[in-house]
What does this fold into?
Amino acid sequence: MNYNMDEKFKNYFQDNLKQVFLYLIDDCNLRCIQCLYKLDICFQVEKKEIAYEDAVKLISDFRRLGAVKLTLMGGEPTLYGIKEKNKPLLELIKKSKELGYEYVRIDTNGQFNSELLEQPEFQMLDEITFSIDGPTSEINDNIRGKGSYAKCVANIKRAKELGYNIDITACISKELIKRDENGNLYLDRMIKFAEDLGIEKINFHNLFKTRNTKRSFYREY
Ligand code: SF4
It folds into this structure.
């Protein structure tokens, strides 16, 4: 083991640990209304990312405890090592496969440069989950920031073309339980939207109150 783990933890998880959620970075290029990652309410936003060497040590130790499924998340995980053209992220995906992780996935807001999808290491991912909060740009962008819908949908389409296994995560907001001018529930339209993109799975998340009322904004990287 690379780290001195608490014996109780080790004994409890040895051969029982199945999956790991690894938070790579606490920064994000969006500021969605519902997000906890905001400087004014979050307990730990310091724009920090985990050192690559530490991430490798952690996933190695967790693999030894039995983990076979790894989820890379943040903040926004595609910002991990962005100044080095995502080299640490790509290396980490490759390393996790070499270590024997059977299922490696990433949770993303879909705002990354689409060239990332072309990278052979990124193509080792077993699943990409895109977060999008509405079937129209009006609904989504009001929650997640201007332009975020178009960028995310473009990356979903490109990922589909390249054969990635994709699903969508959507937060259920009050907008999704409204109806459009034809009487269609936006929640139903969300499912149709996913179907039209050729996506077979949507995770709906419910929201809980955090007293966070500030508007979202989009930040360029
Ligand atoms: S994409 Fe939105 S919800 Fe996800 S971490 Fe960034 S600001 Fe938060």
Confidence is low (pLDDT under 50) at residues 212-221. The pocket of iron/sulfur cluster is lined by residues 28, 30-32, 35, 37, 75-76, 109, 131, 144 (CB under 6 Å).
